[in-house]
Write a structure and sequence with these properties.
Elements lengths: L6 E4 L6 H10 L3 E5 L13 H16 L4 E7 L2 E8 L7 E2 L2 E6 L2 E4 L2 H11 L18 H11 L12 H7 L3 E2 L2 E2 L1 H7 L3 H4 L11
């Protein structure tokens, strides 16, 4: 056995290992072996019966996760195997979020944490409301779009109001343009998103 993105060895149980379990749950899942040294050699473990009771309770109370905790015989030594499934929702440990990268644990913060939370909640950045209202739509741009789209999008008519078009395209949320709506039809988009490429109807 060797450590990997989904396998971790621990010689003894320590509550800090909950951080590893958190990282596994936030990534692709994984297995922690308690009673195995860093080189993958089983060294056994004492007070197994107590740990089999304490570990699942701590995982549930601290992380809100149910893990499969059992005893496994490895080369004649009893070790504890903790199998962690991938979680569909974000899991935190002491208010912090961790993921597994290679055989390391990384704490998420800033933009990486935001992207992680959105991905876990299956929310894309482009569908989130921006700070711009419908009045930030560039009328000339949307009129050009209507002319170009009428043959491919029968639900779009040149007579439709701006509000109706944005609603049909699901580009308005909470009375604000979504980020996608702002990118596609907003005024001075390049100043808000300097690296974006304008769609053909904005050229």
């Amino acid at each position: 056995m060797r450590e990997s993105k989904q396998v971790e060895f621990k010689a003894h149980w320590n509550d800090e290992h909950l951080k590893t379990i958190c990282a596994f749950a936030n990534s692709e899942g994984g297995i922690i072996y308690i009673g195995v040294d860093d080189k993958g050699n089983p060294i056994g473990i004492t007070n197994i019966d107590k740990l089999l009771e304490d570990i699942p309770n701590k995982i549930l109370s601290k992380l809100g996760v149910i893990a499969d905790v059992d005893v496994e015989m490895v080369k004649g030594q009893e070790v504890i195997k903790i199998k962690v499934e991938k979680s569909e929702v974000p899991i935190s440990y002491d208010g912090k979020f961790y993921i597994r990268t290679g055989s390391t644990i990384q704490q998420l913060s800033g933009n990486e944490l935001v992207r992680f939370m959105l991905k876990k909640q299956r929310i894309s950045w482009d569908s989130l409301p921006s700070e711009a209202g419908v009045d930030e739509v560039d009328i000339e741009t949307i009129e050009r779009f209507k002319r170009m789209a009428k043959k491919r999008l029968p639900e779009i008519s040149e007579e439709d109001s701006i509000e109706k078009i944005l609603k049909n395209l699901e580009l308005v949320k909470e009375d604000k343009l979504t980020n996608a709506g702002l990118l596609l039809f907003g005024k001075k988009t390049s100043k808000v998103y300097p690296r974006c490429r304008c769609p053909c109807w904005k050229i």
